[in-house]
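Issue 218. Parser rejects a valid record. Input:
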Amino acid sequence: MATPPTSARPRAGSPTGRRPLAAGKVMVVMLVAALVGGLLNAAGIRKTADSQPVGIRRDLARIVAEPLYAVSHALQIDELRRGIQAVVGRSGDDDIDASLPDPEIRNGTTPAPPPKKRAFDPVFPAKTWVGGDSLSITPGESFVAAAPATQVVEVVAGDVDGHVATGLARPEVFNWSQHIADVVAADNPNAMVLTIGSNDDQTLTGEGGGAQYGTAEWVAEYRRRVGGIMDQVTGDGKRVLFWLGVPPIRTRADDRYQPINDIIREEAAKRPGRVVFLDLDQRFRGPDGGYADYLDGVVVRTPDGVHLSRAGGDIVAQMVLDAMNQTFDLTSWRTTTTTLKGPATTVTTARGTAGVPSPATTTRPR
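Output the parser choked on:
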């Protein structure tokens, strides 16, 4: 029997007879695959790096991610990723918008006069958006439950628009300015109830960022961001913003959130009738002036010492409704005969006590 030529003989240790790649070649193949994968996913890697908590780990991740994204963008590899995302319905997943609007009102600027008090009724209710960080969720649910009893407050989308661990400090993680613009475009609410601040006691990132919490530079930039959001919501005169402050938090120093609450309060005061600040800090302090789990014998905080219990949420919801009653006219419809003029029709409704309308008549063009 003829002996097979040497080239056809299986190599020892290779059951198929194929020569395995040298270790160096394997490493090269793995590195090339990793590079290609990294370039294809560069936009996502960059967003993940930017979303890391501020510190050395985030800095190191960005040192790698930014050049990788620059190369991917220059070679237009990122366009392939965008195309794939569009096909699967995830367009915009990698977008980073770290800009926040400038305020229209600056130091020394004379604030605009308060707008005329608006009246609402069951035919034309006050469309109200409720949202913010995690502290908005339980009070927001209480507000959603209480609103129908007013007959004139309608919560847009019927739910709380809560986004955990968000604020104005990290716009690349969640950009509230862009989100608010989307809400206004979609729902055009008459009132917005916003809870933001509890996650902002940190170094600011994004445009104008870099300052550490509590420094003069931080105060100036955070004030710009707060004022910018306020003017974005109310600048056209079509809506009022109710901004809830940060309550005491058990795991933070007693005065930890004072700079944040002070800035929101002061900026709201520059916009009378357009922005209303609700002070949760003072409302949720105990008899000794510090953090309290109980108020009047009722548990108002959750075990984590951060969030509000259902009873605490009910207190906040009532605070918001009281503020809305002071800012808007939500009750005169109960005792007046109102002629409501819509774009194409006129609806006249008689309202009064025990079915007897009041002789007063108010005309409300819409």
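Fixed in the parser; the record now loads. The first strand starts at residue 126 and ends at 132.
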